[in-house]
Amino acid sequence: MTIQNLSPIAASEASAGKQETIRAQPHLEALIQIITRFEHAFRASDQATIDELCDPGLVDHNTPEGDSTLAGFKQKVAYFKAIFPDLEEDLQDVIASGDTVATRWVLTGSQQQEFMGIPASGQTIRVEGMNFYRLREGRVTDMWTQFDGVAMMQQLSAIPA
Questions:
Q1: Confidence (pTM)
Q2: How many Cβ atoms from other residues are within 10 Å of residue 135's Cβ?
Q3: Of 85, 110, 133, 134, whose CB neighbour count within 10 A is largest?
């Protein structure tokens, strides 16, 4: 896992090839630790840790027709854990700047229950994605997720490869 906690200026200077020491920012390191714990709780459906790390007013920006609240997010987490009970996450990158943390990950797991009308098959999936989180006072207030849903549906034989 790559962990970076650069300010936007330091990140810009680093990418420009400047050879200066970039100091870690303690508040960003704390945010990275919070989100790393949150990602693992999310994948394990650890409801107590999710409650601990989320603001009660959490907004999940990836539920256009569902419940975007903390309660709705927790239902979504439990739903996916039931379908893919052996879900594992390889957290590849965690990057923080300001009040935002981004993660890049790969999930693997096998479908053990019906999912979106697709019968349980035991098929193993491997899906890449990323999350963006906004935090306030050490708690997650907003989250956005992007993942390769087409690849997942192809792996589940729901659409042609």
A1: 0.82
A2: 23
A3: 133
- List pLDDT tens digits, range 48-99: 999 999 999 999 999 867 899 999 999 999 999 999 999 999 999 999 999 9
Residue with structure tokens 């035991």?
Answer: 122
Q: What is the 3-state secondary structure (H, E, C) of 74-137?
A: HHHHHHHHHHCCCCEEEEEEEEEECCEEEEEEEEEEECCCCECCECCCCCEEEEEEEEEEEEEC
- What's the distance, Cα to Cα, between the start and end of the chain in Å? 30
CA dist 134 → 14, 95, 97 (Å): 24, 12, 10
- Per the structure block, which two tokens stand in for 7? 């300010």
The answer for residues whose C-beta is within 8 angstroms of residue 64's C-beta and 6 or more apart is none
Task: Give the span between the Cα atoms of 49 and 63, in whole angstroms.
Answer: 21
Residue 151, classified by CB atoms within 10 Å of its CB into exposed (0-12), middle (13-18) or buried (19+), is middle
Query: CA 41 to CA 149: how far, in whole Å?
Result: 22
Q: What is the third-level CATH fold of 2-8+23-103+130-145?
A: Nuclear Transport Factor 2; Chain: A, (3.10.450)
